[in-house]
Write a structure and sequence with these properties.
- GO terms for molecular function: acid phosphatase activity; metal ion binding.
- This protein is α+β, with helices and mostly antiparallel strands.
- It has two domains: 90 residues, Immunoglobulin-like, CATH 2.60.40.380; 305 residues, Purple Acid Phosphatase, chain A, domain 2 (4-Layer Sandwich), CATH 3.60.21.10.
- An eight-stranded mixed beta sheet has the order 1-25-19-24-18-17-16-15, with no helix packed on it. A six-stranded mixed beta sheet has the order 14-13-12-26-27-28.
- The protein starts with a helix and ends in an 8-residue tail after the last helix.
- Bound molecules: 2-acetamido-2-deoxy-beta-D-glucopyranose (NAG) (3 copies) and fe (ii) ion (FE2).
- One 2-acetamido-2-deoxy-beta-D-glucopyranose binds next to loops.
- Fe (ii) ion (FE2) binds next to loops.
């Protein structure tokens, strides 16, 4: 008898929880032109300033100067205009055909106090910037957005991101869409500076970062590695194309879709050792970012993440990764976090193309606003594990409240306004009784020092 009631209940709930598709009265916006961001300050002044997290309580400040003899020094302090600390770093530059970059400076500063505003200046002169460090306790809020580019849509996404507070921005690949035209890396740096100089931006590479050319630049990633170095050495990786880092209660793994990921590759071996070091009592949440999605019901880029999924999905499943964010497809899609499983209402996730209570939740968030426009065509019928899909520009926000609960919002760019189109709660896998037992059995291995 009770199972009959459950069956009816589940049928009723299913009716209300049908996969969402965009409302037909919402008009999709076409692509918009590239914005022009000139540098009209003196050549010795910093431009393209951006921040990244580099080890516990440290931040890396990166910037470019057109003049080459500017010192790589950052002066900083907790009071505007008064810098009681300073640090020096290194400088680099690169050539790409006839293009020569400006001086690219990278300076590590710290130790910094958590949840504190710092004021800083780069290279001993020029404008003052300020940033806020991430908190030392929950909650923490991440903005997640991929495939940004530098169009008027990008600007509107950035405006919406800036409209409310957050701690760290996570970008699953495709930054500037320079596509060999190197000055577009500079204009991208200038476009994002007002935001990336205020909060750390943690990125991983997309196909547009490759810029490979046979014989001349076979390895690629020349501009990306010079301009956007991430803390890979700190996480035991040998490549800027994959790394991991921690923020409060959260271990974040940035994978590389465009470097070898096959079983036995350097990236694969690094991932195995990185996953083995996770201590869920310190970081109850584990997030992964990757460019090409492993689950995708959009017709764009169908199957492009499949070989990586086959190589790595089991590894991530066995390590109980909570969420996997991808870009590449210029749209928004969420693969399960609440679906009716036969008769029980379960917080359900995905593994091997099927629902699984202990798998990750997958989200495609390649909707930053690049010049290629939206990916409008979807496979029909929608797979049952795809709960929400919509081709609109926008951005996501993951607010981790505590070790068990996180709130996910997807903001759609409704022209110049931002509209919350999705608002869902996620529970961490360690808080799920059926999965947590498996997690507790896994004792973390620490490096022998
Ligand atoms: C971002 O938001 C802050 C605070 O509201 C505001 O002062 C600043 O001008 C904004 N930045 C941009 C580039 O719009
Ligand atoms: C975690 O946050 C959720 C949502 O705010 C709340 O309902 C829950 O009680 C919190 N749990 C703990 C242990 O604080
Ligand atoms: C979306 O934008 C349109 C046109 O500007 C406006 O009429 C509508 O109210 C907006 N919708 C929301 C939910 O803000
Ligand atoms: Fe892409």
């Amino acid at each position: 008898m009770p199972s009959l009631i459950l069956l009816i209940l589940s049928a009723v709930v299913t009716l209300f929880l049908r996969p969402h598709h965009a409302s037909p009265d919402f008009i999709r916006q076409p692509p918009r032109p590239i914005v022009n961001t000139p540098h009209d300050l003196p050549e010795s002044y910093s431009q393209q300033v951006h921040l990244s997290l580099v080890g516990k309580n440290y931040m890396k400040v990166s910037w470019v100067t057109e003049e080459s003899n500017v010192p790589s020094i950052v002066d900083y302090g907790k009071i505007a205009g008064k810098y009681d600390s300073s640090a020096t770093g290194e400088t680099t530059s690169y050539r790409y055909f006839l293009y020569t970059s400006g001086e690219i400076h990278h300076v590590k500063i710290g130790p910094l106090d958590p949840a504190t505003t710092y004021y800083y200046r780069c290279g001993g002169s020029g404008p003052e910037f300020n940033f806020k460090t991430p908190p030392a306790t929950f909650p923490i809020e991440f903005v997640v957005v991929g495939d940004l580019g530098q169009t008027e849509w990008t600007r509107s996404t950035l405006d919406h991101i800036n409209a409310s507070n957050y701690d760290v921005l996570l970008l699953p690949g495709d930054l500037s869409y320079a596509d060999l035209l190197q000055p577009l890396w500079d204009s991208f740096g200038r476009l994002v500076e007002p935001y990336a100089s205020k909060r750390p931006w943690m990125v991983t590479e997309g196909n547009h970062e490759q810029e490979k050319l046979p014989i001349i630049y076979p390895e690629g990633f020349i501009a990306y590695n010079a301009r956007w170095p991430m803390p890979y050495e700190e996480s035991g990786s040998k490549s800027n194309l994959y790394y991991s880092f921690d923020t409060v209660g959260t271990h974040i793994i940035m994978l590389g879709s465009y470097t070898d990921f096959s079983i036995g590759s350097d990236q694969y071996k690094w991932l195995v050792s990185d996953l083995a070091k996770i201590d869920r009592s310190i970081t109850p949440w584990v997030l992964v970012l990757v460019h090409a999605p492993w689950y995708n019901s959009n017709k764009a880029h169908q199957g492009e993440g499949e070989s990586m999924r086959i190589a790595m999905e089991e590894l991530l499943y066995n390590s109980h990764v909570d969420m996997i964010f991808a870009g590449h497809v210029h749209a928004y899609e969420r693969f399960v976090s609440l679906l009716i499983s036969i008769i029980l209402l379960l917080k359900t996730r995905v593994y091997e193309n099927d629902i699984d209570p202990c798998g990750p939740t997958y989200i495609t968030i390649g909707d930053g606003g690049n010049r290629e426009g939206l990916a409008m065509k979807y496979k029909e019928p929608s797979p049952s594990i795809s709960l929400y899909r919509e081709a609109s520009f926008g951005h996501g926000r993951l607010r981790i409240m505590n070790e068990t609960h996180a709130r996910w919002l997807w903001h759609r760019n409704n022209d110049s306004t931002s509209v919350v189109a999705e608002d869902v709660w996620f529970e961490s896998l360690i808080s799920s009784h059926s999965c947590s037992q498996k997690i507790k059995e896994k004792v973390p291995q620490h490096d022998e020092l």
